[in-house]
Design goal:
Uridine Diphospho-n-acetylenolpyruvylglucosamine Reductase, domain 2, Uridine Diphospho-n-acetylenolpyruvylglucosamine Reductase, domain 3, Uridine Diphospho-n-acetylenolpyruvylglucosamine Reductase, domain 1, 3 domains, 5-stranded antiparallel sheet, 4-stranded mixed sheet, 8 helices, peptidoglycan synthesis
Length: 313
């Protein structure tokens, strides 16, 4: 039987260390406990939100009027060249377990601060790799019917930081099965060290931050006319070999690095990281997000789209 707590402060459960109280809160260490939490929310006629590692989210100062399910599932199994991991497994641990089994191809994921479930939901990526590149299938729980089933990766409608799980809220990720391959694990570990060095040099590692605030600006976005953009801003040509224009570049070009609102600052290292300097509020983050969007729109005519997820707003 799950233990339901009342009035739990959410800030300590997030990377940002920002957020008010949840009306109800549980920790789900198994998929069965997760299902129990969903049933509890239905019985109480309240919404629920599944919180993984607490990265990539901004919780409202007023908290969450419903049930927060803190996902703590932690199972990882290896079968041949396939690794299956529960939704609550940190991506860095998945990488570690894969290498321990002599499997490579997912080293890039060490740069993702979140869990398997959140990474699948957002098709997370880093260092040129994305979840969809290595995902075979996903075990899901349909809260509307109570059914559990597997979806092949091709059924998940993956796009840039998008998936079916963002569009169909009733589908919850239980686990993911990844297809990797045997390889040179020594070389893979060397790549891990290189990735760590690159992150340390360019990102606000160790700070209270939710990770990237905004999505990069895809060349394929309907509102992006690449010919007109390149004619007006030739500097964007350096990103033609990438899927899009880095949001951090646009924020930097708008001279916003180091900009501060209250206790929140745009990192002087990386323009897409907004750092809690201590005692920050969600309201301050929202104001700074608005400033960044306004300045980039006025300078480039481009709309920045949030990558972070709002909770309780």
């Amino acid at each position: 039987m799950i233990s339901v707590e009342k009035g739990v402060r959410l800030a300590p459960h997030t990377y940002y260390n920002i957020g008010g109280l949840a009306d109800y809160f549980i920790e789900a260490k198994t998929n069965e406990e997760l299902c129990d939490g969903v049933r509890f929310s239905k019985d109480q006629s309240i919404p629920f939100f599944i919180l993984g590692a607490g990265s990539n989210v901004l919780v409202a100062d007023g908290g969450y009027r419903g049930l927060i399910i803190r996902l703590k599932t932690a199972e990882v199994t290896v079968s041949g060249e396939h690794v299956t991991a529960s939704a609550g497994v940190p991506m860095a641990l998945l990488v570690q377990r894969a290498l321990a089994a002599g499997l490579v191809g997912i080293e890039w994921a060490v740069g993702i601060p979140g869990t398997v479930g959140g990474s699948i939901r957002g098709n997370a990526g880093c260092f040129g790799g994305e979840v969809k590149d290595v995902l075979e299938r996903v075990e899901v729980y349909d809260t509307s019917s109570g059914d559990r089933r597997w979806l092949n990766a091709g059924e998940c409608d993956f796009g840039y930081r998008e998936s079916i799980f963002k569009k169909r809220k009733e589908l919850i990720v239980f686990s993911g099965e990844f297809r990797l391959h045997s390889g040179d694990t020594d070389s893979a570990r060397t790549r891990l060290k290189e990735y760590a060095a690159r992150r340390s040099a360019s990102q606000a590692i160790g700070s209270k931050s939710a990770g990237c605030i905004f999505k990069n600006i895809s060349w394929r976005r309907p509102d992006v006319n690449s010919d007109q953009l390149l004619a007006r801003f030739p500097s964007f040509r350096q990103f033609l070999d990438l899927p899009g224009i880095p949001a951090s570049y646009c924020i930097d070009a708008a001279n916003l690095k180091g900009t501060r609102v209250g206790h929140v600052q745009i990192s002087p290292k990386h323009g897409n990281y907004f750092v809690n300097l201590g005692g920050a509020t969600a309201e301050e983050v929202i104001i700074l997000i608005g400033i960044a969007k306004d300045h980039v729109r006025r300078k480039f005519g481009l709309l920045l789209e949030e990558e972070i997820q709002y909770v309780g707003f």
